[in-house]
Amino acid sequence: MKVASGTMETVNFIEKFIIYIEDHLRERIDYNEALYDLGVEPKSFITIFTSLVGMTPYEYQHKRRMTEVAYELYEGHRRLIDIAKYYGYRNVDEFKDLYKNTMGISPYETERYIRQLDLLERITFEIVPVDSPKYPTKTVYVGSFRIVGITQYFSINDYSREEKLSMLKQLEKDGVIDELLNYNTGQVKGIIMHERVVKDEMELMIGVSSIDATPFNETYTESSDFTIFEGTGKAGPLIEDIYQYIFRRWRFKMNRDLNCNFSIEVIKSPFDVDYSDSKLQVWQSLE
User: What positions does the domain HTH araC/xylS-type occupy (predicted)?
Assistant: First the structure.
């Protein structure tokens, strides 16, 4: 969030107050008392805070707390009851209702829908650019294009990101990837992983962009503006890291909404999912 240099003192104080909130994220904060202790008149400060941050301090704390809860649920290292208690919620049923009212889904659906959640990373104010992007990007409009390949459907309740990599490995083992590459005559070069929800199921297609007649299944992508993120590494961890970068950092610098109704990843080369230096792209659709 960029601000004029004349507001530097105000911005610095708001940054410090955000740090205060982050340090007390799991606690009940009396904002009037906290601000009086800091020598600030609460009403005027909260007005300025809200205009710059886009929400009140209380709303910021609540959204950040729910975001951290979502990440904990996604990572799955602790039980729901332990997470609820850690963040100060003693009644688990009330916590479940609060989470659903905030996130729009139950805690148990978090792993499945983490990419669609409206999460909030800690807000900072960029006076000048201080770092380069973690992954090189380009934003382009791409019209609908045809993908041919192998399609598999999963129950949404059972689907996880591991299913995609498992399917990719099996297709490699069976020689299907090499066969698909013979038909890679479309505008996008590489192995494409395309997933979307169709009639309450997760449709996963692994294939190539092609204009040829083939013995494989076919589907068409949506036309969209895409920001394309590029990275090098082992496919599984790299895909996960790029999405975490998109949803934990990059999207908060964007002024456009993200379209999460489908996903596209492209392995450019080599096509071995276990290779440590695969070149890979994640295509993030923009609204």
Answer: 15-113
Cβ(285)–Cβ(222) below 8 Å: yes
Q: Which of 116, 147, 167 is the last residue of a domain?
A: 116
> Same domain for 280 and 141?
yes
Judge contact between 141 and 225, C-beta under 8 A. yes
Residues 104 and 164 in one domain: no
* CB burial readout 211-239, b (16+ within 10 A) else e: eeebebeeeebeebebbbbebebebbebb
Q: Specify which residues 196 forms β-bridges with.
A: 203, 262
Q: How far apart are CA 49 and CA 43, in angstroms?
A: 10
The DSSP annotation for 175-222 comes to THHHHHHTT--SSS-SEEEEEEEETTEEEEEEEEE--S--SSEEEEPP
Assess whether 46 and 151 both reside in one domain: no
pLDDT tens readout for residues 58-69: 999 999 999 999
pTM assigned to the model: 0.58
pLDDT band at 5 (very low <50, low <70, confident <90, very high): very low
Total domains in the chain come to: 2
Give the structural domain span for 195. 137-286
Per residue in 72-83, pLDDT (tens digit) is: 888 788 899 999
Residue 283 contacts residue 228 (beta carbons within 8 Å): yes
Question: In this structure, is residue 124 part of a structural domain?
Answer: no
- Does residue 215 or residue 271 have the better pLDDT? 215
